[in-house]
């Protein structure tokens, strides 16, 4: 019924299925909240942000992933994403292959910009261990 999130990464179901499942999980709490707010003369539909956080469970906790556009590998602590000065992001191992046989500089595979090894920046995604 609910999307399985066994790998702790992406939703294994479609985004629509995930949203419907999350709404179904949150509905009992939302109905209670609406009833409490109605007694206080407020309308849940008129608030921009819920006054309480509704925990949906670990199956709805996702973290961003990065797949290198060159190698198609997912980033790992051993192969982290690196931002080039042009803003394109590649996995470290792909950068290493581009740097091979070159003296600390290479051309971005996606735009004409020349990239130097010292101008690479690590990319961190919030929520990744
Ligand atoms: Zn680029």
Automatic annotation (TrEMBL):
GO molecular function, one term: zinc ion binding
Pfam families found in the cross-reference section: zf-RING_UBOX (PF13445)
Organism: Chlamydomonas reinhardtii (Chlamydomonas smithii)
One GO cellular component, as annotated: cytoplasm
Domain spans labelled RING-Gid-type: 68-111
PROSITE patterns xref list: ZF_RING_GID
Gene3D superfamilies (alphabetical): Zinc/RING finger domain, C3HC4 (zinc finger) (3.30.40.10)
Protein's UniProt name: RING-Gid-type domain-containing protein
Organism domain of life: Eukaryota
One GO term of the biological process aspect: proteasome-mediated ubiquitin-dependent protein catabolic process
Family annotation (CDD domains): dRING_Rmd5p-like
Zinc finger (RING-Gid-type): 68-111
SUPFAM superfamilies: RING/U-box (SSF57850)
Subcellular location field: Cytoplasm
Keywords: Cytoplasm, Metal-binding, Zinc, Zinc-finger
């Amino acid at each position: 019924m609910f999307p399985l999130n066994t790998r702790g990464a992406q939703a294994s179901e479609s985004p629509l299925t995930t949203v419907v499942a999350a709404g179904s999980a949150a509905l009992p709490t939302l109905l209670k909240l609406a009833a409490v707010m109605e007694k206080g003369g407020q309308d849940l539909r008129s608030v921009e942000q819920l006054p309480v956080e509704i925990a949906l469970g670990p199956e709805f906790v996702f973290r961003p992933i990065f797949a290198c556009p060159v190698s198609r590998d997912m980033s790992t602590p051993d192969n982290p994403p690196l931002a080039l000065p042009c803003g394109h992001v590649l996995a470290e191992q792909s950068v290493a292959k581009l740097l091979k046989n070159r003296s600390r500089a290479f051309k971005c595979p996606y735009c004409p910009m020349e990239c130097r090894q010292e101008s690479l920046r690590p990319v961190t995604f919030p929520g990744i261990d």
